[in-house]
Design brief:
Blueprint: H1 2-17, H2 21-31, H3 36-62, H4 68-88, H5 93-119, E1 123-126, E2 132-135, H6 148-174, H7 185-203, E3 207-215, H8 220-226, E4 232-233, E5 251-254, E6 259-260, E7 265-266, E8 279-286, H9 292-295, E9 296-303, H10 330-345, E10 357-359, H11 365-381, H12 383-389, H13 406-418, H14 426-443, E11 458-459, H15 462-466, H16 476-492, H17 499-516, H18 526-554, E12 557-558, H19 561-570, H20 577-587, E13 594-595, H21 597-630, H22 637-656, H23 658-661, H24 664-693
Parallel strand pairs: 3-10, 3-11
Antiparallel strand pairs: 1-2, 3-9, 4-5, 5-8, 6-7, 8-9, 12-13
Length: 694
Amino acid sequence: MAKTKEQFKAVFKLFKKAVDPKNVKRALEKTFASDETNYNARRVKVEQALVELATAVGKLEQIDHPDAGTHRSALIDLRARASKADKQAKYDAKAAFSALDSIKQDAREQAVEARTCVKKSAMDIPLGDGTTAKVFPNDIPGFDKLDPNAKEKMLQEVAKKISNGKRILQDILEKDLDKLDDPTPKDVTDFIWLLKSKAQETIGEPYERGAMTIPDKGNKIRAYLDRCPEVYGRRSTHFREQQSKKGQQPRGMDFYEGVDRDTNQVADTDLLLPGGMCALLFQQLTMPGGKSEDKERLYIKLETESARLDPLFKATDSTLPPSRELQRDDPIRTVLHLLNAVKSYFGLSQGEDPDLKKFKEEGVKDVKEKMKATLAYLKKANPDAYEILEPAISPSDIGVKSSVRVNEMLAGIERLVAAKDVELDFEGLRLLQAAFDALTDSYEIEGRDATVRAGGEVALFMDDLTGTKKKIDMPESDIIGRIEEELAALEQCEEIDDLTSLKTALVGARQTATDLRGEEELKTSKRAQSGLTTLRTKISDLASRVSMIEYEQASTIENDSKAIGQWMNKNGMAEHAERFLELLQDQVPESQATIRIGVLKAVQREIVMEENRTEKVMDRLSLLIKEVEACQHTDELADLRKVHAQSTQLIKAVRQAKETRDNKLIASTAKYLEAKLGPLGRLIKSLEEALVSA
């Protein structure tokens, strides 16, 4: 047991080292928060957070968002809590200061949620051909600061750009390129607006930065873009393995004139790229597998900075057109581009919106780790299987800077499964299944041709671009009915532990979500949109549960500080490190060499239950405080006695239970309630005496 204790201590030290400096600062502030001056300083910050939330709620109400009422109620509750803290500060500034911390955090979290709801609310704009396109607020720089008339005019301009983009795509697909005029810079931006709107429509949500690939059979689209006078050859860190073949050297174009970067406002709609981006990277690709019309693809990425000036660049592609002339601002823009590349390498922010997803061609960390684990095991246990799977991830891809390709990994797994002369043991099969599940869960590739996907980028198909995909055109009632059926089936899964049944339900639910994604009614029905969002959330929850059951059935977590620490951090237990390790130590026998994931989950549930109990106690204390304060407006003796008795009983219970007694916020709130009981007791006594006299 001594060894186990030392391991627990090692984990705790690991988390102590990782303490955020902001948390240290906050702890110091709390220590010296006993005077009114510090309270008032924090109160100003709380008010700023409340104003921030109120602004976000106002924007939700402007677009008539279904969640506006929920966030408005949260704002009202937070203001009430702030008022209560102001009263408490008169006799216990330190406790009130602590209450403000919680209010500020809740207000900021609510504000983020409200702003995200606004950003993810699509605006359907009519196009010239009678169809509509989806545009999101973040697509247009400074859109939220425009007045209603200006917003309407801007949407009309965007509609014209997308309509022209559709015309350009149709001409490229149906006509001889030699008969088309060379694209102007405006034509290029119009075409990109079409692609971005189609990409966001396909994934069902907006994104600010990220990559997409589109089918480009015969490389006609790439050849068309090459004819724009603004194009130039450039280097790129993306898809280096595909840059040596004809047509595959990266190209770039710049459109800085579209947006005023000082004010983040639209400067020229003709040269405006979506999201206020200023540069375009495109590159021809050839994907393995898939249908012939999807193998040849065009990689497109919008960027904030140019890469025109590069002394190391050499034109090696015979299809590459002459690069545009150098301009005065090219050197500084290229330097900024390189700085962004450095930031990306180290995982630092480049100023992107944290509320929106990014879609990159690089594989996610979870997939990389599972593939690495599979290869590491097979290398020792089954060299023949390793030799088949290893090409799916080259050695350089397993390093810190990795570019895992989904199509290559899938192809490797399929080769291994199809190999008749290679048999995998139980552990090998488990690891391979975990890697495959990570691929499908991370990239939602059911129902789509995954062999054309490199990683997390938006992979568009021709029917996505042209709208030729056959629609079922289900009415709203049928869509909602189908969603409700799936939700009911998923709810039944909560009582099922059979892995096969759970996987069957998961596949069915995913297929339903995929089938409904293209329905026309989803563009206008908020109820259907909300239902589909709920379904996707439930699908994600079930996928996590399936993975947990698989892991629990076939594996254990090694009892060492690194493994436990990683699990705690991944599952949101880092902030409860001390309590977590205390509970875990009680549940691990001295003879046990490993800690099963079920034990970790049990400890996690216990901590969550403790948090929930604490939250319920706070809610009950707050309610009784309101009832006690309301007693001054009534002379109903029975009601007064009831409130007094309930308050006395709760205060006693709070002081007896360790988890609430040691909670400073609960203890100070209980003390505040107790102070209120003195006047209430005197009021009760006065009414009793008056009743006796009468």
